[in-house]
Amino acid sequence: MSDIKIVILAAGKGKRMEALGFDLPKPLIPIHGRPMIRHLIDAVNESQVDGEPIIITAPDNRDLFCQTLGSRACRYVVQEKQLGTGHAVMCARDHFMDTGHVMVLYGDHPTVTAQTIRRLARE
Asked: How many CB atoms lie within 10 A of CB 63?
């Protein structure tokens, strides 16, 4: 499983969440007392598939993600222009060029478990 790099997409604007009164990027909205993305990062860490996942953020949100995730081992890549999912992954390509496989996860999916990540890595 060491030949897998995990990329977490978190650069979306989450405009629909504004209508619900949230002034945060969707992955930072709390679920059970923790931001959605922390649930996912904890699952990635527990899975031991990738010790330093890449988080794709928007330019104006990078510091907020760094502050929220604290000392968790992550690499941040800024997607300067929001041109879609494929573009977001391509923004991080320099960090996984020598990797055999890339697993792309969404930062607003807090219910993905370590077991699911390990299972995907084996398939």
From this structure: 11
> Is pLDDT of 28 > 70?
yes
Indicate the residue type of 85: T
**Rounded distance between C-alpha atoms, residue 105 and residue 6, angstroms:** 7
Q: Which of 9, 68, 58, 3 is nearest to 33 (CA)?
A: 68
- Is 14 strand, coil or helix? coil
Strand intervals (E) in 1-119: 4-9, 30-31, 34-35, 54-57, 75-78, 101-106
Which amino acids are annotated catalytic? 16
What is the four-CA torsion angle of 17, 19, 23, 28, rounded to 10 degrees? -20
Q: Which of 8-17, 25-34, 66-75, 77-86 has the lowest mean pLDDT?
A: 8-17
The Cα 59–Cα 109 span in angstroms is 21
pLDDT tens for each residue of 50-101: 999 999 999 988 898 998 888 778 999 999 998 999 999 999 999 998 899 9
pTM: 0.89
